[in-house]
Amino acid sequence: MHDLTCMIRGCQAKVYAPAGTHSVCRAHFLSYLTWRRRKGPQMFMKYAGMTMEERDPYVAEWANTIRVEEAPTASAPKA
Ligand SMILES: [Zn+2]
Asked: What's the CA gap between 38 and 59, in Å, rounded?
C-alpha cells in the first residue's frame, strides 16, 4: 500500500482505501464495493475474511471490468 494514486490505469485520483495489496481512489472504491455487492452476500462475507494477497485476484477481475467500461466501442461482435 505505497501507491500515491489510484491503481486503475489512467486514473490520477488520490488513494482513498486499500484494494488487495494496492490502493484505489474514492470513486473506484465505491465502484468496487458495488461490484462485490452484485456478487452476493456470501462473496461479501468471504471477502471480509481474506488477506490482502487473497483479495488481489478479485481486485484484478474487477479492474478488468473497469477497463471494458472505459472503452465501450472497441469491437462490436459480428453476427
Ligand atoms: Zn481511481
From this structure: 14
* Coil vs helix vs strand at 79: coil
CA of 38 to the centre of ligand 1 (A): 20
Nearest-angstrom CA–CA distance, 47 and 38: 13
Q: Determine the Cα–Cα distance for residues 27 and 15; give it in Å rounded to an integer.
A: 10
Q: How far away, in angstroms, is 46 Cα from ligand 1 center?
A: 24
| Centroid of ligand 1 to alpha carbon of 25 (angstroms) | 4
Kindly give the distance from the C-alpha atom of residue 8 to the centroid of ligand 1, in angstroms, as a whole number.
Answer: 6
pLDDT tens digits, the chain, 79 residues: what are they? 456 899 998 899 999 999 999 999 999 999 999 999 999 999 889 999 999 999 999 999 999 998 655 554 545 555 5
